[in-house]
Amino acid sequence: MSKPKREPVKLVPVPSVNIIPERDVDKTPILEVSHLGIDFGGLTAVDDFNMAIGRTEIAGLIGPNGAGKTTVFNLLTKVYHPTRGTIMLDGRDTGGMNTIQVNKMGIARTFQNIRLFKDLTVLDNVLIGLHNEMDYHLGGAILRFPAYWKAERIAKQRALELLSIFDMQDMAGNLAGSLPYGAQRRLEIVRALGTNPALLLLDEPAAGMNPSETSELMENIQKIRDTFQIAIMLIEHDMNLVMGICEGICVLNYGKVIAKGTAEEIQDNPKVIEAYLGKKKEEN
Predict the structure, then answer these.
(1) Are both 183 and 224 inside the same structural domain?
(2) Which of 156, 178, 196 is a domain's end point?
(3) What predicted TM-score, i.e. pTM, was given to this entire model?
(4) For 232-244, how does the pLDDT look when each residue is reduced to its tens digit (9 = 90+)?
(5) Per the count of CB atoms within 10 A, which of 36, 150, 216, 267 is most buried?
(6) CB distance 107 to 77 below 8 Å
């Protein structure tokens, strides 16, 4: 019996709805989100969210209050599990994973409301973040085997190196709760870096900071990206910070993406202007 004749097929590229920096285009995006959505009862909080982040990109997620930005962060880190859609982290589907598993895969975050262990020292807070790198077992820790002391020594050295990014190494012995607000914000970023992320999510990192602290934060975010060669995505209401360091910006409103592009493109986008300022009344 002869095989049916098959017509020749030409494969063509399918355009993507996502954008990443040109320097990262030859590498798998560290994050690729497709048609992500979540419903709470009858309320749709996020719907058809699509976004990709290049491996060394500083990206921004902005929008008015209540737009769904922190909900997106909670979905990416598995605080919430999506109703629909796919989250690919470093080319791997995170479906069915929990917060600990995706953290070990390489995603870390800070929070809108600071969540430090305020009764522990600055150093101990960072050491907690280093748990992914601690190379000893429970039995060795209880019995204080040499491997335990070696791992502890290496971890403390690493913690101090991370603190030095923000010139906080001299505060190592201070209680975290005794630090000024801006320093607590910085400590939370250092602790997140301790988990050795490939993607760092910062939820309003400049909240409560004065202009001088914000300017220093901008420099340090760029320094972190360049030093560790990681991607960073931030939620932020300080537009000077966003427009100053973010390469790709995604704008949410009522849980939907209304715009994507560079800082210049976003600033001039009528939908974005309307979302923040409201629609102009038509003149009679």
Answers:
(1) no
(2) 196
(3) 0.86
(4) 999 999 999 999 9
(5) 36
(6) yes
